């Protein structure tokens, strides 16, 4: 294997000069740099990035920790992160922790040993205590919700305002009995969407009664089970706002199996804007998050932090991106032909 010593010997310069030339240091003349680069190419020399990283304390590697790789929300997020990593010459590592704190901590310990430059963390339901300790000293950007005790930048969307947007759409169509299909109770985004649903109803003079709330878990199976449960509730519900698109998709199946038509009998609105929502039957009206931009913004924020470390004591940033309503075929005006 060709080494930096071989390049130095053939170029007739010191190893330090080769290092400066390969790293585009200004203290090397253009002629010397060109000679070193030419000889390195002729010899087939490839710099050892790990060794360079250990010497300069940078490996040009970042990591992305995800709670659920099966959720179609995350591929678009990863694409946004990967795009920036490619543009900036960084390698992206991905870890799946399934919202398991022990697994997340183990991943962080391993990433520290691999000397990653920074971490992007989708927090999910991680409690934060062990995660904070395991990630201490590694520049970190959190997506979706802040981890208690972790001094990190946050990139998120206004979940409450997005939920209000979806429910106000249904209210504008004349619906008043609007059920809420929740996400997991311990997920902050689910809680904030619940608050948005409640705020929109109250602002319209509608009481958000407990019989309008049915539990879900952000999965298709959870949405299907919630739909079956909803069918046992007292009649009168004409629309459902689901905390995410996967729950809404499971709900669509439950309603269809019960012989109900969407939107003729029941209107449904989801949340997230995953690509799959445009291909359900009917096509799902949804509150769309800028998923790609979430990943891209978080990666840019992290790499900018790495390029120019913030002054000691500087406050972490919180960037809140807007949502938008994608109106498709799963919502219609009230009165409907019948009700749940």
Global Rg: 26 Å
Largest β sheet strand count, sense and barrel closure: 6 strands, parallel
Class based on secondary structure composition and strand pairing: alpha/beta
Q: What is the H level of CATH, i.e. the homologous superfamily of the largest domain?
A: Response regulator
Low-confidence regions: 52-56
Q: How many DSSP E strands?
A: 12
Strand ordering within the main sheet: 2-1-3-4-5-11
H-E string:
HHHHEHEHEHEEHEHEHEHEEHEE
Distance between the termini: 72 Å
Amount of beta strand: 15-25%
- What is the count of helical runs? 12
Q: Under the CATH scheme, which class of the largest domain? A: Alpha Beta
The CATH level-2 architecture of the largest domain is identified as 3-Layer(aba) Sandwich
CATH fold type of the largest domain: Rossmann fold
Helix content: 40-55%
Architecture overview:
This protein has three domains: 4-47, Orthogonal Bundle (434 Repressor (Amino-terminal Domain)), CATH 1.10.260; 61-158 and 292-322, Rossmann fold (3-Layer(aba) Sandwich); 159-289, Response regulator (Rossmann fold, 3-Layer(aba) Sandwich), CATH 3.40.50. It is 42% helix and 16% strand. It has twelve helices and twelve strands. It has helices spanning 4-11, 15-22, 30-43, 49-56, 73-87, 101-113, 129-135, 159-172, 188-203, 220-230, 245-257, 291-307, and strands at 61-66, 91-96, 118-122, 140-143, 153-157, 178-181, 213-214, 239-242, 267-272, 285-288, 318-321, 324-326. Helix 9 links the parallel strand 6 (178-181) and strand 7.
């Amino acid at each position: 294997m060709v080494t930096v010593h071989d390049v130095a010997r053939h170029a007739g310069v010191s190893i330090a000069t080769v290092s400066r030339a390969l790293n585009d240091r200004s203290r090397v003349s253009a002629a010397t740099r060109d000679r070193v680069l030419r000889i390195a190419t002729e010899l087939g020399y490839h710099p050892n990035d790990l060794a360079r990283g250990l010497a300069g304390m940078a490996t040009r590697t970042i990591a992305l920790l995800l709670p659920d790789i099966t959720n179609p929300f995350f591929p678009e997020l990863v694409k946004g992160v990967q795009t920036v990593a490619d543009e900036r010459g960084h390698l992206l590592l991905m870890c799946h922790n399934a919202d398991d704190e022990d697994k997340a901590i183990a991943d962080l310990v391993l990433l520290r040993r691999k000397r990653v430059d920074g971490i992007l963390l989708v927090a999910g339901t991680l409690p934060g205590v062990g995660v904070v300790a395991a990630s201490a000293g590694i520049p970190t950007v959190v997506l979706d919700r802040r981890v208690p005790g972790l001094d990190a930048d946050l990139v998120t969307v206004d979940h409450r305002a997005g939920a209000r947007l979806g429910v106000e759409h249904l209210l504008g169509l004349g619906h008043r009995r609007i059920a809420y299909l929740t996400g997991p109770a311990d997920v902050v985004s689910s809680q904030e969407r619940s608050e948005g649903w409640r705020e929109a109803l109250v602002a319209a003079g509608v009481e958000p009664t407990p019989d309008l709330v049915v539990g879900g878990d952000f999965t298709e199976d959870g949405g299907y089970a919630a739909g079956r449960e909803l069918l046992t509730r007292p009649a009168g519900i004409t629309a459902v706002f689901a905390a995410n698109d996967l729950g809404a998709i499971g709900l669509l199946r439950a309603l269809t199996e019960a012989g109900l038509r969407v939107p003729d009998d029941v209107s449904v609105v989801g949340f997230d804007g995953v690509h799959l929502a445009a291909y359900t039957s009917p096509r799902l009206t949804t509150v769309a998050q800028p998923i790609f931009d979430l990943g891209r913004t978080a990666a840019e924020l992290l790499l900018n932090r790495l390029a120019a470390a913030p002054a000691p004591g500087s406050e972490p940033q919180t960037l809140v991106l807007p949502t938008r309503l994608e109106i498709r075929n799963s919502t219609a005006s009230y009165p409907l032909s019948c009700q749940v």
